[in-house]
Amino acid sequence: MAALALKSRRFRMEREADWKRLEALLDHYERGRRSAMSDDDVIAIPVLYRAVLSSLSMARAISLDRSLIDYLESLSTRAYFCVYGTRATIAERVAAFFSEEWPGAVRSLWPETLAAGALAFIGAAAAFVLTVHSPDWFSAFVPYGLAEGRTPDASTKDLHDTLFGHDAHGGLSVLASFLFTHNAQIAILAFALGFACCLPTAFLMLSNGFMLGAFLALFVGRGLGVDFGGWVFIHGVTELFAVTLAGAAGFHIGWTLAFPGSRDRLVALTEAGRQAARVMIGCLLMLAVAGVLEGFARQLIENTALRYIIAVTTGVAWSAYFYWPRGRR
Amino acid sequence: MSTPSMTTTTPERLRELVTPEGVDLRLVLAEASERAGAFLLDAVFIALSLIVFTLLTILAGVLTKLKTAEALAAIWLLVSFVLRNFYFMAFELGPRAATPGKRILGIRVAARNGKALTAEAVFARNAMRELEVFLPLSFLVASRNSIDAWISIAGIVWCAIFVFFPLFNRDRLRAGDLIAGTWVVRAPRRLLDVDLSSAAEGQGFVFTREQLDAYGIKELTVLEDVLRVRDAPTIAAVADRIRAKIGIKTGITTGLSDVAFLLAYYKALRGHLEQRLLFGRRRKDKFDKP
Question: What is the DSSP string of A128-166?
């Protein structure tokens, strides 16, 4: 038979069954039907993968059947991503993230965190001083929509009511989820804006500080400073910390983009992106906690001392979690 | 492994990925058009699911006579936030590392260093969408209130920089890919096609050595494509060209259809060229010396 004299055809006939088996297993794996696969199947994947890889190099050397080589390349690539792309189980990943990766990433970004915190503080201090001297500044720092009647024109009683009366927002759960989604969106923006060489992130940090400072000046001017502190910091410690970290993540990326150091810019940027993303994933969780504190705890607890206790507790807890020296490295 | 490339894809999109076993998988980067198409599909999917979900929420609100309005509003806010931010992340963290739009176009996300795609990388590349897509979009929406024409112009320029970012680098990276250390490659699911040399047609036709020396590997590949597509006018035209080239008069092969003739020639040519290959001679095309 002349046709069987084709070595490439015999080659294919001998190995085709293995290829088809690997293809079927990969279909299962990619559809996420891991539970439908027996232990034998799971163990077979790496073995079959190596067999297909060797078939591929062989086919490239002896076969001129283009569709066969294309098929083997596609199959090998799929199998490669399956074999070498597998991650640890979700539980292990989550545990590693909370025990080491997240606090480690936050620690390694300490210069950026200081910078972001300092910017917010400078913004707050500047706005506070300016607004105390001349209340006209208030409208320059706080967008009209966010003020919600808390302006220098409001009476002291109204201002007092905003701190202790139930919010007019309606249900607490709506408020909590609104606050969380809104803040998380801002945090993601602060991170993404870092790519534009830090400047927009810096502005975001400053303007965040402006608002805090302006409000503080307004309430201090009416003798409500202590109560306002309780109202803000019960959730604000967590929220401001998270926003500062998001800003730090943005700075880290922008700074590395501008000054990659002795490394290749792309390599440095990738490493910075990973580190910053780790910080950011954690930030979103912090903001969820802040949203719950703001939406529920603040509305339900109307005692300023208790509010301060919660604020201090969260502050100590977060700092200890991030910065407490760990034994092993 | 230094076998010359036989793929017809443009070499500037070909990237080396050498597995730990030492085989180059020859990844092909996705074209910018495929990326854009996948994104548009995903945007449509997100918009559709948001519309459906909104209608369901309204329906649920009406059915319960607004008693659960508060909980529904909270759920709606959270779901729309999750859709906007985690649609891409959730799908790209799956085993196929591709959103539905990417799957439809046969592309996937991969780490540039060939290692596993990590959750951080997927988060970073998708958080950047905030900057690339949603921020300029909100600029454009805001500018309808005619705050300032300059702001909307700045928004459009900003948008353009990031939308066309992939066109300005070799690897077709968008800003998110740059940060995350990822790129988008073709990962089509190919099925194993029949071996053309196993076809029953075209048996018992013998070609001379000179007739088989007329073409090289490139032409064989073209012939393979023609035979797989089986477009009648093309088959006829190609058969005529080959007959003329190798000097066979139509009269001699009257017993054979064009397809059978081409199959016979394909088998003979492939056998001939593969045999030369075993002896270390890879004849690129018909201009290469036999």
Answer: HHHHHH-GGGHHHHS-HHHHTT-STTS-HHHHHHHHHSP
